[in-house]
Design brief:
Length: 305
C-alpha cells in the first residue's frame, strides 16, 4: 500500500486499503485506547454548512485524545470574508494544526489545498465534486450489514448530478465484484457522464430505472436530498423536488433483507414514520462516520501501516 498523504477523492482507495481502514474502524469502535494520539491538533475548516461531517470529525479527534480548532461558516467568519485566498488560509492553518478537514463550495478545492499544505488535508466535501470520507462510511455500513460488498444491487435515488456522496460511492463500488447500480433521478439531476463512463469502463453494470422497479430490486437503497444550494434556477429546483419518497405505502416493495441508507440531512424523501423499521440504517450510518474518521485520522497522522 502506498502511504496516504491526503484524502482527496475515492479513487485513492483500493481493496487492500479499504479492508485495512474497515478493520481499523472495527478496532476503534471496540477500544480506541491503543490508538491515542495526544497532543495532535485537527483544524476543521468548513465553508459550507455541516452537522455530521464536522461534528463526527471533531468527535473522532477527541476520542483519539487529540484536540480540535474549528472555523464553521468560514465564508462569513474566516478571513475569506476579507478576501483571503484558500491557499493562504491553508498555509496559515497548517502552522496551527497537524491535520485539516476542509469542506468547501468549489469542486477541486481539496486538491488545491493539498497542493500547498504541509499537513494532511481531508476532503470533507468539495462542492458537487466528491465526499470520500462519506463514501467510506457508506461502504463500511454496507459491509457491516452484508458481510461483504460483492454481488450487490445498489439503487441511488434523488439528486445524482449535484450529490457528491453518490459520485464518491460509485468509485468505491467499482472496486468490488459484480456490483449492479441502479440510478433513479429527476431528468435534470441525472448522474454525470464522467461517472457513467467510469462504471462502463470498469465493467460495472449500471442502468437508469423507474423508482418502483428499482426499490423492488435493490439490496441497498441509497436515498439523497435534492441539493437546493447548487441550483442557479429555482424553477428547475421546484421541478426536481418531491418526485421520489419512501413512506409506508412503498414499504412492502422493499426486500426483507434490504437496507435503506441516506447521507442526511433528509427533507421529505424518507418519511420519519419509517425510522423504526430495522431496514432503515441511516442513523447507524451517521454513527459509523466516527469510527471511519478515527481510522482515517490515525492513518494519516501515524505510520500505522
Ligand atoms: N452527510 C453529510 O455530509 O452531512 P453534513 O452536511 O451534515 O456534514
Amino acid at each position: 500500500m502506498e502511504k496516504l498523504n491526503h484524502i482527496i477523492e475515492s479513487q485513492q482507495f483500493d481493496r487492500e486499503l479499504l479492508d485495512y481502514i474497515f478493520s481499523l474502524a472495527d478496532l476503534m469502535k471496540t477500544d480506541p485506547s491503543p490508538f491515542q494520539i495526544p497532543g495532535k491538533i485537527m483544524a476543521t475548516l468548513f465553508y459550507e454548512p455541516s452537522t455530521r461531517t464536522r461534528l463526527s470529525f471533531e468527535s473522532a479527534m477527541l476520542q483519539l485524545g487529540g484536540n480540535v480548532i474549528s472555523t464553521e461558516s468560514a465564508q462569513e467568519f474566516s478571513s475569506f470574508s476579507k478576501g483571503e485566498s484558500l491557499e493562504d488560509t491553508i498555509k496559515v492553518t497548517a502552522g496551527y494544526a497537524d491535520i485539516i478537514a476542509l469542506r468547501h463550495f468549489e469542486i477541486g478545492s481539496a486538491k488545491l489545498a493539498a497542493s500547498v499544505s504541509s499537513k494532511p488535508i481531508i476532503n470533507a466535501g468539495d462542492g458537487a465534486g466528491q465526499h470520500p470520507t462519506q463514501a467510506l462510511l457508506d461502504l463500511y455500513t454496507i459491509r457491516n450489514h452484508f458481510n461483504n460488498i460483492n454481488n450487490l444491487t445498489v439503487c441511488m435515488i434523488g439528486d445524482l448530478r449535484y450529490g457528491r456522496t453518490v459520485r464518491s460511492l460509485c468509485y468505491l463500488l467499482g472496486r468490488f465484484y459484480n456490483p449492479r447500480i441502479l440510478f433513479v433521478s429527476p431528468k435534470i439531476c441525472r448522474m454525470e457522464e464522467d461517472i457513467r463512463q467510469f462504471l462502463t469502463k470498469n465493467d460495472v453494470q449500471w442502468e437508469e430505472m423507474d423508482f418502483q422497479t428499482a426499490i423492488k430490486e435493490a439490496d441497498c437503497i441509497y436515498m439523497t436530498r435534492i441539493q437546493k444550494e447548487r441550483f442557479l434556477d429555482m424553477n428547475l429546483y421546484a421541478q426536481a423536488i418531491d418526485q421520489f419518497r419512501l413512506d409506508k405505502s412503498v414499504l412492502p416493495m422493499i426486500k426483507p433483507r434490504a437496507i435503506v441508507m441516506h447521507p442526511l440531512p433528509r427533507e421529505k424523501e424518507i418519511h420519519p414514520e419509517l425510522d423504526d423499521d430495522p431496514r432503515m440504517v441511516y442513523f447507524e450510518q451517521a454513527q459509523n462516520g466516527v469510527w471511519i474518521r478515527m481510522a482515517l485520522i490515525h492513518l494519516l497522522l501515524t505510520s500505522s501501516r
